[in-house]
Write a structure and sequence with these properties.
With 285 residues, the chain is of the alpha/beta class. The chain has helices at residues 2-11, 27-36, 58-65, 91-98, 111-124, 132-135, 150-155, 171-176, 178-189, 200-203, 217-223, 238-242, 255-276, and strands spanning 17-21, 40-42, 74-78, 103-108, 166-170, 211-213, 243-247. It has 2 domains: 2-209 and 255-276, Rossmann fold; 210-246, no CATH class. The longest helix has 22 residues, at 255-276.
Length: 285
């Protein structure tokens, strides 16, 4: 019995559900909510980033499979980079080639709010010294803007996945009524919809309130071969040394910039509303 269990664990499995994004839209909280369901096994760590690779090796595929329990009815991972098509092209095609029957979850939020949160994330990590205004001088092919073009990101998946394999939710919906929305998601995934956890009520948040990295934090992460600086925050001794307690404030979006952003997003938001049938009534446009 033990040998058979070890063999299954070594072989692993492929996922049949992926949270494809978007960045700074509470995908971490969604990942956690999903993991609470007894029929769903979510990967640890959350972001495996496998489909960002152009030509993964056999060893990389074996390592990827090892993160998933073959006995779980639903096996998933969550990588917001999967909907950053301008930075990582070809993700949808690679995903469809390996897991064509997978179901995809896409969590979004007000596109302008997402940009502000993304900018604050970069500033806190000392990866962006410019003001938000300077970062948005040009809105075309802009790495801050493109992840908020949700319908455009979905369009990369539609040639490869049927519409009924894609479910779009929003941070705002999960904040208003997480229990009802998780039941909708569970129904989409084909698992029991009557499962409820008290942790749904306080799980939906966005990790915006974290302090700025201190000078030298990035260098230390590189020396420790840590790809994501934020993973050092939770270390009891390193976290306080590497990060301040004072959070980076949200930027103030000037009226002229807001009008430019609204013009840029208007058609894309209309396309997302058409795709989902949802109103996104809490959004600013």
């Amino acid at each position: 019995m033990g040998d058979r269990g070890d063999e299954r664990e070594a072989q692993g499995a492929l996922p049949n559900m992926i949270v494809i994004g978007a960045m700074k839209c509470a995908s971490t909280a969604l990942h956690r909510n999903l993991s609470l369901h007894p029929e769903i096994a979510m990967s640890q760590p959350k972001e495996l980033r496998f489909f960002l690779k152009q030509d993964p090796s056999a060893e990389a595929l074996a390592a990827y499979r090892s993160h998933f329990n073959p006995l779980a009815p639903v096996r998933g991972e969550s990588t917001p980079g999967y909907t950053r098509g301008s930075v990582y092209p070809g993700v949808a095609a690679r995903m469809a080639a390996l897991i064509p029957e997978a179901r995809l979850l896409y969590i979004v939020r007000d596109p302008i709010d997402r940009i502000c949160s993304h900018w604050r994330h970069l500033v806190a990590a000392r990866r962006e010294p410019r003001s938000l205004e300077r970062c948005l001088d040009d809105l075309d092919d802009n790495p801050l803007v493109d992840p908020s073009l949700y319908r455009a990101q979905l369009d990369a998946y539609l040639p490869h996945f049927a519409r009924d394999r894609i479910y779009v939710t929003s941070l705002e919906t999960l904040r208003v009524d997480p229990v009802a929305e998780m039941r909708e998601i569970f129904g989409f995934l084909g698992v029991a919809t009557d499962f409820v956890s008290p942790r749904f009520q306080n799980a939906i948040h966005v990790s915006d309130q974290r302090g700025r990295a201190r000078l030298g934090a990035t260098t230390l992460a590189r020396l420790l071969r840590i790809k994501r600086l934020g993973t050092l925050r939770s270390r009891p001794r390193l976290g306080p040394l590497l990060f301040t307690r004072q959070p980076v404030p949200l930027p103030v979006v000037s009226d002229p910039l807001r009008r430019r952003l609204e013009d840029r997003f208007r058609d894309d938001v209309a396309g997302l509303r058409e795709f989902t049938g949802a109103a996104f009534a809490d959004w600013s446009l």
